[in-house]
Design a protein that fits this description.
It contains five helices and five strands. It is α/β, with parallel strands linked by helices.
Length: 123
């Protein structure tokens, strides 16, 4: 077994959110970045990624649709997808999970909670 670091794809249309998440992940995980859903799907088809941190509200494809497309793609269907959402109502969480999300974290993300979820999902 190799000792490679896990790679996380951070998908968000807000540069400040991307920077904050990449800073939290730095040193523990390798990161790739996509600024919208279409770019995320392109990255996933061309790179090895172990987990996706996915914003819900984005122009073009929203996070729910991106997750549905990931789940419908052979080879990606089992990829962990963690939704990041400023919407924390129970129906929003239910919608994210129904779209195929593995977990949902509220924005702003609490660093300890983020690292705990990632450790659980990536082992």
């Amino acid at each position: 077994m190799t000792d490679r670091r896990h790679t996380i794809l951070v998908v968000d249309d807000t540069p400040d959110s991307i920077m904050a998440l990449c800073t939290l992940l730095k040193g523990t995980y390798d990161t790739k970045v996509a600024i919208n859903g279409e770019a995320a799907l392109r990255v996933l088809h061309g790179a090895s990624v172990d987990l996706v941190l996915l914003d819900v509200v984005m122009p073009g494809l929203d996070g729910y649709e991106v997750c549905r497309r990931i789940r419908a793609t052979p080879g990606l269907a089992r990829l962990p997808v963690v939704f990041l959402s400023a919407r924390d109502a129970p129906e929003d969480t239910a919608r994210a999970l129904a779209a195929g999300g593995t977990a949902v974290l509220a924005k702003p993300v609490e660093p300890e909670r983020l690292h705990a979820v990632l450790a659980r999902l990536l082992g």
